[in-house]
Design a protein that fits this description.
Low-confidence stretches: none
Strand content: 5-15%
Distance between the termini: 29 Å
Number of strands: 7
Order of helices and strands: EHEHEHEHEHEHHHE
Helix content: 40-55%
Shape: globular
Strand order of the largest sheet: 3-2-1-4-5-6-7
Number of helices: 8
Largest sheet: 7 strands, parallel
Length: 262
Amino acid sequence: MDTGLKNRVAIVAASSQGIGRATAEAFAAEGCRIAMCARNAQTLREAAERIEKQYGVEVFAQALDVTNAEAVHGFVAAVAARFGGVDICVTNAGGPPAKGFLAATLEEWRNAVDANFLSTVYFAREVIPYMQRKHWGRIITITSITTKQPVADLVLSNAVRAAVVGLVKSLANEFGKDGILVNNVGPGYTATDRLKELAKSRSTASGESEKEVSERWSADAALKRLGEPREIADAIVWLASERASYVTGQTVLVDGGLYKGL
């Protein structure tokens, strides 16, 4: 399938590992020029070097904290200066800790808003002008199944991720006239380090082993298994491609049938 993405410039946030890294790899496989960022400079550098070597594409990597608006501004400006613009922006950040409502501190609420909502605002503000100049752009947010179906002990994610969906809808409506498509991808239980942390938290609370927790999650999905990061990445690449040119303002769940609603 021709995705029409060769030589496009794709920013992927929090891309040193997990779904973010898989997404950067998937865009590289399509011939995109890749811009990666993450907080851990060493892990980011290793990921960028491997992608550049494996796929033979140009990769720009910069360590930064996506909750820092000035850092995001500088990063996007550097990407545009190097590659001549920005075509695709995938926003992403580590999920907030597993907590019930009364256990979550006000600081954790602020951190969740900063990392999982305002970081998307920061990137969108920076990349949209570049996309408007080309009358072509894709903004894709990575959130969670929690945008459709709240998950126990994830009150921070349940609340803050929903705000991202409101932003996605608003941006899609406002900038569709400029050729910019804005969509959201909601992964289900996916085999990442984040899921291991959640399994550990659930294990401590329930007395089950981490393996039992993981097996229960798998059993809840129609496909009876956890997702793989590359499977979420494939959906993101499709949304960015010319094959999804009439899709905007949507949330696409990549959850193996975990969501039970209509």
